[in-house]
Amino acid sequence: MFKVIATVSLLSLASLQASASSAAQACATARVGAALSVADIEQAERFYQAGLNMQRALSRDFPEHGLKMRLLCSATLSLEILQSDKAAPNPRGAFERDLVHGPSKLVVWVEDLQQSSDRLVALGATLNVSAFEEPNLGVRIAILTDPLGNPIQLNQPMPP
Q: N or C: which end of the chain has fewer CB within 10 A?
């Protein structure tokens, strides 16, 4: 089971009201939502569907704004993936924005850290920090980057 700590997107909530699919119903019960900007929406959608067992709830294109949106859901997470026609790679690197805005990442709670990490790596993620224990927080942590450069932190509760 996956749980995510992130921000809720108003676009997702408004879009859910217009959709009655089972995936959208799952989104309506999801406890947390997140939004990621990506350069390749199809690649991101495949990665998160396979890696985090998510289903597409909604697909919308807004050509007048040069924006594509996919809403993916699981029982506990809604993930809005956005691609803008105006987006361009930062010539100074993916983490340059962190110097101005602070770091951002997707934090996912998993039942089996090794299995989840292995599955994401097999789908194209990069393992940046191998699993380690943080006993003060009672958690095991691994840090990855998805194929499009978004940081993902996997957390697994440590046994008491």
A: C
